[in-house]
Structure prediction request, 357 residues.
Amino acid sequence: MAYEFNLKNSFQDFNPSKFFVHCCLLVFCLLLALKLDDEIRCSYWVIFIPLWIWKGAALVGCIVGCFIWIRNPHYRIERDSSNHFRAMIIATSLQMLLLMFELMSCDKLENDRTQVLWLFVFIPLFSISVISIGLCVWALKHGRSCEFEIFCSTNILQFIFFALRLDNFVQWRWVIIFIPIWILLCIALICVFYVIILTLILLRSSDVMAEQKRNNTISAVGYTFIVTPLLVFNVLLTNKLDKIDNMPYVLVVIPLLASLVALIVTSFNSRGANYSLNMVSIHCWFRRVFFMTYTPFINFLGNISYTRSRDRPAADVHTTSSTLNKKSIPCSTKNPIMLSDDFNRGSVKTVSLDLPD
Prediction:
């Protein structure tokens, strides 16, 4: 039976865009809950700082991408590069519309502008939702992920309900206002049950590779820890808004924070997703400069791949002293690592250390 410990794949599958966005949302939700409970007395402009950082990173990433595109004309010949550039411009445009909504929301909350309707504030979100419908078709046609676009396009009715309820055009209970979210959560729960059942079937199958079993197990656990806390959060939030429970917002938001933590963890296994903030160049710079210069121990540990096999024949375990004497370990550095004579009494498994680019 073999046991494998591989940190290198974790860093290779890391998606910095998702990690960064979910961290910003985590901090923002926590600050907003504390503000609503009057635990902190600061301006809403301070509460929204994590969102400003998110949009600032998106804008910087777009500027860097445009600069690279202009300095390298041969990228325009490649079809994939053109699609990546268009996707970057589209994603940045959506982020700027979202920034407009956040600015108007923050201004209305801070200054209590009663003359400004929430329907007017939600206009950028309505625009994003309508545009996202066409962008989903374009993304699927070009084989790109469209998680943000799908989220916006499927929640257009929810945004309308929110705006009407906040302006008191309708006096429905909040549990009715959240009906579109309940429908989406029910669909998500059905998908989670399907993934769990499929994972259990694959685990009992002997024809499936171990790597596929591991990926399906990670997906099932990740989806469970994302969807279930979201359902609990919506139940607590509707009870709080309908004044059924007098629970503070800090406790209400805990399930949402748990879902965001699960999303942060799954970002380490999301290499296939798109870099929606165009953070490829920023990520490469951070990897080269920070990890290789200032944290060499992380650089060393992040490139270790260790496999231990328990079912090994005795002939492979007992080797002669002459074979082990001055045996070198393959390494990408110029000077190979030499084993001393103290290792002659036992067997040493070959270890490969690969430094990043």
